[in-house]
Amino acid sequence: VKLVESGGGLVQPGGSLRLSCAASGFTFSRFGLSWYRQAPGKERLLVAYISAGGTTNYADSAKGRFTISRDNAKNTVYLQMNSLKFEDTATYFCKATRAHILGLDEYWGQGTQVTVSS
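and the corresponding structure tokens:
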């Protein structure tokens, strides 16, 4: 099982980035997918979620600025981030989750750094 994030980098306030998370080793289409972020010294927080059926949810901090999407044919989940702010600076992680009768399957990527700075 592998989740590999990409697309992070340095961007000015007001700019945009598109993060990608490429998955392999499991049945991607059956999993809910999330983006989390973690700033230095702070806890990891949920940013956005998309279910296996395509239903989305966002943290208040992301509503109206970020869009999560998935491409099951490419086994990839995306996070389009617009109107970036200084406080969006963090390491962004993707997670795949599936609940089943025997418990919970949960996989994490290694993270990609997003820095918003002028």
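(Above: one complete record from the training split.) Residues 1 and 25 are 4 Å apart (CA to CA).
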